[in-house]
Amino acid sequence: MAPINQLNPSPRVLLGPGPSDVHPRVLNAMATPLLGHLDPQFLEIMNEAQELLRKTFRTANRLTFPVSGTGSAGMETCVVNLIEPGDRMVVCVNGVFGQRMKDVAERAGAVVTPLDKPWGDIFELDELRQVLQKVRPKVLGIVHAETSTGAWQPAEELGKLCHEFDTLLLLDTVTSLGGVPVEVDGWGIDAVYSGTQKCLSCPPGLAPVSFSTRAVEAMNRRKSRVQSWYLDMTLVQRYWGEERFYHHTAPISMIYALREALRLVHEEGLEARWARHLRNHKALKAGLAALGIQYAAREGHQLPTLNAVLIPEKADDLATRKQLLSEFGIEIGGGLGDFKGKAWRVGLMGYSSRANNVLLFLAALEQSLATQGVPFSRGAGVSAAGQSYR
Amino acid sequence: MAPINQLNPSPRVLLGPGPSDVHPRVLNAMATPLLGHLDPQFLEIMNEAQELLRKTFRTANRLTFPVSGTGSAGMETCVVNLIEPGDRMVVCVNGVFGQRMKDVAERAGAVVTPLDKPWGDIFELDELRQVLQKVRPKVLGIVHAETSTGAWQPAEELGKLCHEFDTLLLLDTVTSLGGVPVEVDGWGIDAVYSGTQKCLSCPPGLAPVSFSTRAVEAMNRRKSRVQSWYLDMTLVQRYWGEERFYHHTAPISMIYALREALRLVHEEGLEARWARHLRNHKALKAGLAALGIQYAAREGHQLPTLNAVLIPEKADDLATRKQLLSEFGIEIGGGLGDFKGKAWRVGLMGYSSRANNVLLFLAALEQSLATQGVPFSRGAGVSAAGQSYR
User: Fold this and answer.
1) Is B52 part of a structural domain of the chain?
2) pLDDT per residue over B315-347, tens digit each?
3) What secondary structure letter does DSSP report for B266?
4) Which of B21, B238, B249, B332 should be substituted to probe chain A, the one whose Cβ sees the most A Cβ atoms within 10 Å?
5) Is A68 in Cβ contact with B69 (below 8 Å)?
6) How many domains does chain A have?
7) Per the CB < 8 Å rule, is A9 touching B35?
8) Are residue A217 and residue A281 in the same domain, yes or no?
9) Are the C-beta atoms of A330 and A358 separated by less than 8 Å?
10) B220 plus B115 within the same structural domain
11) In this structure, are B137 and B172 located in the same domain?
12) Are A12 and B28 a contacting pair at CB < 8 A?
């Protein structure tokens, strides 16, 4: 075995689908010596993290806290707590994360009706109304920001629609929370999960979740135990609630980090943060357009946080990504599933969403495309992005 | 809402049931800027973490890696991957974590036969043989180091015994790995999980697990899907194995930290580390005996890593723990379950297992007992511990 030396990763500019770059203040918080998970000072830190999370989700939901796992654990938490074997659930599938939710729901014993759309597309209210009318499901699951396609699902009216049919709305906000508007109370969302490593720019490892009163009531009416002990809200909420009853040891350092990341979010202000994400996205899009590069998601529904673009015909997917990483330290993501080999995913999330990164990425991409003999007008991308900022 | 200020926790000496104090090098690793979870450099770091984990578990098992959750997620991972609905499982219950395993197994659909013993006691080979003979279970689950009672279960012969009955051995090493001998291959353990925040002195958030070839074959023979998508080994191992297929975003900073914590383990050497834990435990025990304080677990089977002791008759449980924390910054644990209000749990784990901490804790405890008018001979504890080190 080769010697395992001191950690010394190369510097990176993280413009993939997550993790995004982490602010130095958050990294410092991670290095803070630990308190015990039942220390009164730590309990206060938990309260603060919850308060900041509620403010981020725009909700008064009592049951709002970070699950001790990554975003997918948040998805599983929502599903297994809302679903009992035999419950009907409609899952909207237009990318990898809709597919994943369908899989998770089936494993929880749900009778799943998938609603399929082409990748990159979004769901219209009318189609959703039709399926709700027909299926009358307990839960409708839908992805707000599809990380695999960059599609931005309108979600403002979904809660109202679901509640007409006595259906609970479950929304995936992994790649939207902190980057574009998410209004849990305003939009009538009953269960929501996110990840820390996207627009909140905290390391991966926690999954913020929130449940409405309606969702909590549904959980209280369960006849069977939640299949997962680790993710069982009836137990976990006794630790995150006033009782402070030991369930599992909280990931203390990660909660330090999340609290600091959320402090940064609210120092900037949510509206200012959303505007920043939009501004940098527009500049990137202008730059890419000038290079002849098109977006994969439907026009008018493209996420500012995750820019999925079609790989130019003469460009080599892997070679381009390798060159960006090795020569410039820039990470972007490849395509997943239907988009494998066809799309690049350029994240502009949280601390990574900066003008410097947009200009640097476009300059580096031009360099790489030139190496490969892909035709484009030299300097056009950087110039168009620069103009967009003016 | 009160302003949420910069993180500034009071200094602590963590002598509870976990987390233990984290070495400064591990805290520094946590603050290292992130690589992407599919970055070639990060994949190499994962390989190194796995190699170090195998060395720590003393195993050649290919399927050895940290689950993206805390110790209890490790327990659930082992159970849900080995068990299919209707499978028979024997769970040994002599404390909170045996109880928990029974609960987790039932939720996974196992037909559980619990084997109960009084808290603080351990299981004899003969009793285990009897139940295996009678039940012929697919899995026997047992806790090596019962964190709630401080009981140290002999485990050397368990694998051989289980395999006589074609039973898989599942061992909980949350409070033993890195503190007392754990020999996964030598003892024939088929599935094992641990936590990072105990004797490995890494922050909580990961659960190292390892599966034998026999366990992997059992998983491959499954007829049903694993009920948890997040913890499904058939999926997770495609990311941790050579394929590097995306499953969920790895908790990058936690893996940095674990790698550094394991580097420290092997710089010290496992045998030296076990000896250190034993030495400090003996000094603590001598000191407590001089104060008239008895251990809760059966004599001869008391963990060096977790010292569960009976609270002296005239001492106030909560008042003592509060005074230790507020005056001296020392955290110790209260009792759980049957031991609530009856026992204190003093952890000497990983970086916390140091002579300084033993002497400081005894001195502070004497101070607190004196305040409360509990009778003991002043200075006797510190003096006896000091002599034990000579």
Assistant:
1) yes
2) 999 999 999 999 999 999 999 999 999 999 999
3) H
4) B249
5) yes
6) 2
7) yes
8) no
9) no
10) yes
11) yes
12) no
In whole angstroms, give the CA distance from residue A323 to residue A318: 8
- Shared-domain flag, residues A262 and A273: no
Cβ of B254 within 8 Å of Cβ of A252? The answer is: no
Phi then psi for residue B73, to 5 deg, are: -70, -30
The two three-digit tokens of residue B264, written as one number: 């420290």
Is A307 within 8 Å of A284 (Cβ atoms)?
yes
Question: Among all chains, which residue has been given the structure tokens 């920001």?
Answer: A145
Instruction: Please judge whether A256 and B69 are an interchain contact, meaning their C-beta atoms are less than 8 angstroms apart.
Output: no
Q: Is residue B310 part of a domain?
A: yes
Which residue among A12, A32, A254 sits closest to B7, beta carbon to beta carbon?
Answer: A32
Tens-digit pLDDT profile for residues A289-306 = 999 999 999 999 999 999
Taking only the tens place, the pLDDT of each residue in B24-58 is 999 999 999 999 999 999 999 999 999 999 999 99
Instruction: Tell me which of A237, A266, A295 is where a domain ends.
Output: A266
CB atoms within 10 A of CB A363: 15
Nearest CA distance, B390 vs chain A (angstrom): 31
Mutate to test the interface with B, among A174, A198, A227, A229 (most CBs of B within 10 A): A229
d(CA A81, CA A353): 34
Residues B212 and B349 in one domain: no
Subunit contact B204:A246, Cβ cutoff 8 A: no
Tell whether pTM > 0.90: yes
- Give me the domain span that covers residue B260: 24-266
Sheet holding A333-334, edge to edge: A306-310, A343-347, A333-334
Do B250 and B343 have their domain in common?
Answer: no
What does the alpha-carbon distance between residue A334 and residue A323 come to, in Å, rounded to a whole number? Answer: 13
ipTM above threshold 0.95? yes
Q: Which of B6, B30, B112 to mutate to test the interface with A (most CBs of A within 10 A)?
A: B30
Which of A266, A295, A312 marks a domain boundary? Answer: A266
Per residue in A118-128, is it b (16+ CB within 10 Å) or e — as a string? Answer: ebbbbbeeeeb
Q: Which residues of B touch A252 (CB under 8 A)?
A: 19, 203-204
Q: Do B229 and A11 touch (CB under 8 A)?
A: no
Contact B352, B13 (CB under 8 A): yes
